[in-house]
Automatic annotation (TrEMBL):
Gene3D superfamilies: IlvD/EDD C-terminal domain-like. Keywords: Iron, Iron-sulfur, Lyase, Metal-binding. It comes from the Bacteria. It comes from Mesorhizobium cantuariense. This is L-arabinonate dehydratase. The keyword Iron-sulfur applies. Residues 365-559 form the Dihydroxy-acid/6-phosphogluconate dehydratase C-terminal domain.
Length: 577
């Protein structure tokens, strides 16, 4: 690609080139760091947005990877600047990291806009960091490349392979059933997360980094490389080299994240057995790029895309490390062939089709051919009905097929705490046919849209050997979760969605093949209940939460802040002074 930028037209030149007092100040401050003029004059400034934190154990290796990126930037003649960013960790943040995805997006956009950067390397991976960084950088609009943290190694205990999240729930149910002694439980605890890197099931982290890869925002296949593999270091340095070239080529994200790229990302998500969270983030990311991706688009793609990544939790046997050895995301995308828009532009400056040339599957039990899928349809289905007029999500491949069509009485909980207390009560009046319902767990009600949607099976049923039942909520669930869980009911109950009107004992009917979720209650009765319904009190009285409550959109819209969406007001220009 021919260079379009020159040293004089770099964005950073506005800060450093003029012979005036402001620029003198900027240059003298770089010299404070020990740099000489020849270190930075006329070179592309590359921001390395790094979400390292000791509270983000998935990104433990980022301290070293920053050095690899810097090495690459310097080799290519750029000037690297390390900019630590909000870490948004999944493991420790209460009530939920989702409350802060948009905060990271705002920080990313504003840090880019306000600083002398010509291009950015976005370092993320743990669930919300991928959409947060990408959303912000899309709005900022300068060249960017995404550096995915990579999955951690397989878990291991006593010769058994352990998968992040999924096996934690599984072993926990066995422990609740009285089948796991302390020593074994401790062994699982110490073996389930044994290296730096993101959850190594096809949870939200692996789903979202695969989505960034499929959108053309990472070096080809970068999302599959395990965090501690030396390939990951080489990929990091290559990101540093490539972003400098992207600046000269003026390869901005609006040329990459097009309609075709968003579609590619959605198809790949479906084929990988993606986390249910993909829906919310994908819609939000697409909308930042001005692409109007909807729940119905995702359902349509889900119906025609077979699930071919045999990776837990939707797949049976393997984890991300196996997926990498089997050829990784490039191999999976190669299988999808011309279902994808192969003409889509990517960060390499080449098309997706060119990036996939030569990709191969090395283990066709891990990455299946289209003719032998793990599941005949894609990962997600969108439901509608009088319980969820604006939609709800289910992951058919991850639930017992006997629940695909199910009718049963509702057992309704108004809060997570109430549910937690009741669920371990051995005398709880519940049968395997009941439908467990949790409400006030959506974007506003949670608050922040927590991952409470895989409601625990009541203890009395666990003891009888039951391990799945139909559960519905306006919450999300972890990408590593599984089971017959209907999620993201929109509008949520907290804002008066019909879920707020449901009562214990009402009959609920799920018909997955027909994509419907209904409560068998008459319109007349629902109208009567609506009159009795009272708006709950505010969740936040001040601060970030207060702002969040006023501006977050519902699940079907991607839960972005309304004022950050593309098309809300005029695009901010460059700072003028
Ligand atoms: Fe970080 Fe799962 S906790 S990716
Ligand atoms: Mg998660």
């Amino acid at each position: 690609m021919r260079n379009k930028k020159t040293s004089e037209t770099l964005r950073s030149a506005r800060w450093f080139a003029p012979d005036d007092l402001r620029s003198f100040g900027h240059r003298s401050r770089l010299m404070q760091l020990g740099y000489a003029e020849e270190d930075f004059r006329g070179k592309p400034f590359i921001g390395i947005l790094d979400t390292w934190s000791e509270m983000n154990t998935c990104h433990a290796h980022f301290k070293e990877r920053v050095q690899d990126v810097k090495r690459g930037v310097l080799q290519a003649g750029g000037f690297p600047v390390h900019m630590p960013s909000l870490s948004v960790d999944e493991s420790f943040t209460k009530p939920t990291s989702m409350l802060y995805r948009n905060m990271l997006a705002m920080e990313t956009e504003e840090m880019i806009r306000s600083h002398p950067l010509d291009g950015v390397v976005l370092m993320g991976g743990c669930d919300k960091t991928t959409p947060g960084l990408v959303m912000g950088a899309l709005s900022a609009g300068i060249p960017m490349i995404y550096l995915p943290a990579g999955p951690m190694l397989r878990g291991n205990y006593a010769g058994k392979i352990l998968g992040s999240g999924s096996d934690a729930w599984k072993y926990w149910d066995e422990r609740r059933a009285g089948n796991i002694p302390d020593e074994e439980w401790l062994g699982v605890q110490s073996g389930i997360a044994r290296s730096a890197g993101t959850c190594m099931t096809m949870g939200t982290a692996s789903t979202m980094t695969a989505i960034a890869d499929a959108m053309g925002l990472t070096l080809p296949g970068a999302s599959s490389i395990p965090a501690v593999d030396s390939n990951h270091q080489r990929m990091s340095a290559a990101c540093g080299r490539r972003i400098v070239e992207m600046v000269w080529e003026e390869l901005t994200p609006d040329r990459i994240v097009t309609d075709g790229a968003c579609r590619n990302a959605a198809i790949v998500a479906m084929a990988t057995g993606c986390s249910t969270n993909a829906v919310v983030h994908l819609i939000a990311m697409a909308r930042r790029a001005g692409v109007a991706l909807t729940l119905d688009d995702l359902d349509a793609l889900g119906r025609v895309t077979p699930l071919i990544a045999n990776v837990r939790p939707a797949g049976k046997d393997y984890l991300m490390e196996d997926f990498f050895y089997a050829g990784g995301l490039r191999a999976l995308m190669k299988q999808l062939g011309d279902r994808l828009d192969l003409s889509a532009m990517t960060v390499t400056g080449k098309t997706m089709g060119q990036n996939l040339a030569g990709a191969q599957v090395y283990n066709d039990d891990v990455i299946r051919p289209l003719s032998n899928p793990v599941y005949h349809e894609g990962s997600l289905a969108v439901l509608r009905g009088n319980l969820c007029p604006d939609g709800a999500i289910i992951k058919p491949a991850a639930c017992d097929p006997k629940y695909h069509v199910h009718q049963g009485p509702a057992l309704v909980f108004d809060s997570c705490l109430e549910m937690k207390k009741a669920i371990d009560d051995e005398n709880l009046d519940v049968t395997p046919d009941h439908v467990l319902v949790l409400r006030n767990a959506g974007p506003l009600g949670g608050p922040g849209f927590p991952e409470w949607g895989m409601l625990p099976i009541p203890k009395s049923l666990i003891r009888q050997g039951h391990r799945d039942m139909l559960r519905i909520s306006d919450a999300r669930m972890s990408g590593t979760s599984y089971g017959a869980c209907v999620l993201h009911i929109s509008p949520e109950s907290y804002v008066g969605g019909p879920l707020a009107l449901l009562r214990t004992g009402d009959t609920i009917r799920l018909d997955l093949p027909n994509r419907s979720l209904e409560m068998l209650v008459s319109d007349h009765e629902l109208a009567r209940r609506k009159l009795e319904w009272k708006t709950p009190g505010p969740r936040f009285q001040r601060g970030y939460g207060w702002m969040f409550s006023r501006h977050v959109t519902q699940a079907d819209q991607g839960c972005d802040f309304d004022f950050l969406e593309t098309g809300f007001g005029e695009k901010a220009g460059e700072p003028d002074i």
